[in-house]
Write a structure and sequence with these properties.
The chain has 260 residues and is α/β, with parallel strands linked by helices. The protein has a domain at 80-259: Collagenase (Catalytic Domain), CATH 3.40.390.10. It has three helices and eleven strands. The chain has helices spanning 132-147, 208-222, 246-255; strands spanning 12-23, 26-34, 56-62, 68-73, 113-117, 122-125, 128-131, 153-156, 164-171, 179-187, 190-201. Strands 4-3-1-2-10-11-9-5-8 form a nine-stranded mixed sheet, covered by helices on one side. Strands 6-7 form a two-stranded antiparallel sheet. Strand 6 and strand 7 form a beta hairpin. Helix 1 packs across helix 2 (208-222). It starts with 11 loop residues before the first strand and ends in a 5-residue tail after the last helix.
Length: 260
């Protein structure tokens, strides 16, 4: 996420953390992003079963430098595979499907994906107040528009049966750092649930475009996209993208090729 229209006073912030852990045979991924900049990382997968150990990775980025640093731990995995479930070959190119790893990434086994917003939050932007839900939905819909059908989402009015639950939190302890984070559970290669949390700072400096971009980023990872190596893609650590790229869209279509 680019740091457009923002002044960051914290010298170094941790923007993305992805922790892969296996508990009772279920994989749990934790991820997040700060609006001050974006870095993404993927943890290594652990072996299956209640005794399996997980890997972790923390990627950080200085707000005054484009250089990213990483630190990570890894564990041997007996389930890791670079073969994505779509198995479409090169039907949709360019894409970064090869970065998808079973045990660290998942996909949904159905469409539409049911999204439940547990609450809404009125946030202050330079142009006035706005609904956080509306801005995040705009970001989600950028994917739907570019995908043109296939794997879609629908907003539901109850948490019962919801696939993705979204919560908004007002962060009065931090200025200039609206953020989102999330956790995902999956069995084998299929997501069972995703939870997203969006925080709003008390500074009022986040633009609606930035809030929408955060929503788009979060939805991409909620679909199971891995971190891209190209800065033109929304899931790249140093992305310059403001919306899903052609490669982002093609990767989704490759992972969910039975819908396309």
């Amino acid at each position: 996420m680019r740091n457009t229209n923002r002044i960051v006073t914290i010298a170094t912030i941790v923007n993305w953390a992805f922790v892969g852990a296996l508990v009772l045979g279920l994989a749990i991924n934790i991820f997040g992003c700060s609006a001050g900049g974006t870095s993404y990382g993927s943890g290594s997968s652990g072996s299956t079963g209640s005794s399996g150990s997980g890997g972790s990775g923390i990627f950080s980025k200085s707000s005054t430098s484009s250089t990213s640093s990483t630190s990570s731990t890894s564990s041997t995995s007996s389930t890791s595979s670079t073969s994505a479930p779509g198995n479409c070959g090169n039907k949709f190119v360019p894409n970064y499907e090869s970065l998808w790893v079973s045990g660290s990434n998942g996909i949904w086994g159905h469409s539409p994906v049911k999204v439940y917003f547990t609450n809404d939050l009125t946030v202050t932007t330079p142009s006035g107040t706005t609904s956080y839900t509306q801005q995040v939905l705009t970001g989600f819909n950028e994917w739907s528009t570019k995908l043109g059908g296939g794997i879609t989402f629908t907003q539901v009015s109850s948490s019962s049966g919801a696939d993705v639950q979204v919560t908004f939190v007002s962060d009065t302890t931090t200025t200039n750092s609206a953020s989102w984070s999330g956790s995902a559970k999956f069995s084998n290669s299929s997501f069972t649930s995703v939870a997203l949390t969006f925080k709003a700072s008390s500074s009022g400096t986040e633009t609606t475009a930035l809030l929408q971009l955060m929503g788009a980023e979060a939805y991409g990872f909620a679909l199971g996209l891995p971190a891209s190596t190209s800065t033109s893609d929304l899931t790249n650590p140093s992305t310059t993208a403001t919306s899903p790229s052609t490669s982002d869209i093609n990767t989704v279509k490759t992972l969910y090729c039975s819908y396309y």
